[in-house]
Amino acid sequence: MSKNSFFYRNSLSIVVLTLMLLCLCGQFFTGWETQNKELAEHSKAALSIGEYIHSGHFIQATFENWESEFLQMMLYVVLTVSLRQKGSSESKSLDKEEDVDREPRPHSKAPWPVKKGGIWLKIYKHSLSLAFGILFLISFSLHFYGSLKDFNEEQFMKNQPAVSAYDYLSKSRFWFESFQNWQSEFLAVASLVILSIWLREKGSPESKPVDAPHDENA
């Protein structure tokens, strides 16, 4: 494969996004079948594909996971600015100044906010964490909407009254859905940070060189 080809230059994002879409399709169709089985058990009409896309069951399950991913990435980006882990490939050096810490300097190939300066540069300096933070808030809101809708759809199946958004916010179900995902994301990050101290993967930028000492940061 030519190193100048579009796929070679973008292969990581293409493969990861393809895997995400395949898994999302798998989630959708298995979730659709699961929901219709539950409806059948309550003698309710099955949902069409179009109806399932708008169902609380699908919206809640999707954004519950996206929410935790964006929260994980936002906090990881922010925490790695000032916190360290001796020997981890995921941590900055304990004593040396890193290139990412220097103040940006305008040059011919610099992004336009760097050239512009002022408020645009101040925002751009933290644009990665801000983007993840916005995506987290959007996903959190959609998770809440989907979870409330799913709960009320279950109430309907059981011939029980629906609850308001205010009342649902105080129920444990929504927060259980969030916390069970948040803790797993932080465990995954902690595992990467700690295991990369002693373990290696040749060729991966997430790993130190295979012959690097355990107590040396990447």
Summarize the structure.
By secondary structure, the chain is mainly alpha-helical. The chain contains 8 helices and no strands. The chain is 66% helix and 0% strand.
Notes on the structure:
By secondary structure, the protein is mostly helical. It has 8 helices and no strands. It has helices spanning 6-41, 49-53, 56-82, 112-116, 118-124, 127-157, 165-169, 172-198. The model has no long low-confidence stretch (mean pLDDT 95).
Topology:
Blueprint: H1 6-41, H2 49-53, H3 56-82, H4 112-116, H5 118-124, H6 127-157, H7 165-169, H8 172-198
Helix pairs in contact: 3-6, 3-8
Major sheet details: none
Count the beta strands.
0
| Shape estimate | elongated
Which residue ranges are poorly predicted, with pLDDT under 50 across at least 5 consecutive positions?
A: none
Structural class: mainly alpha
Features:
single chain; 218 residues; mainly alpha; elongated
